[in-house]
Design a protein that fits this description.
The chain is an all-beta fold and 115 residues long. The chain is 0% helix and 53% strand. It has no helices and 11 strands. Strands 2, 4, 5, 6, 9, 10 and 11 form a 7-stranded mixed beta sheet that branches. Strands 1-3-8-7 form a 4-stranded antiparallel beta sheet, with no helix packed on it. The termini are far apart.
Amino acid sequence: QVQVVESGGGLVQPGGSLRLSCVASEKISSPYFMGWSRQAPGKQRELVASINNAGITYYGDFVKGRFTISMDNAKNTGYLQMNGLKPEDTAVYYCNLQGPRLNAWGQGTQVTVSS
């Protein structure tokens, strides 16, 4: 059973940057979909960004121009580069990897944006 583990969260000041990583326990085979979602206290989980094996990306309007999603298939790792962070980006960020007979979620990594 494929597992994914996120890392890279932390405390950062407004305007700062973080890069989240999502490492899969096995080789990521096509077709696949990798998404980053987030959940803030008292709010529903929302999709932040996604990428598939064709390289097609999606970004929520609230992160367009600030966040970049990417994949390194050789390392079985996905990334979410977050620039220009705002206090409203504070949340637990989750990685989700989907494929044929696969739907794996990580445990989440906390991102806190505060001065």
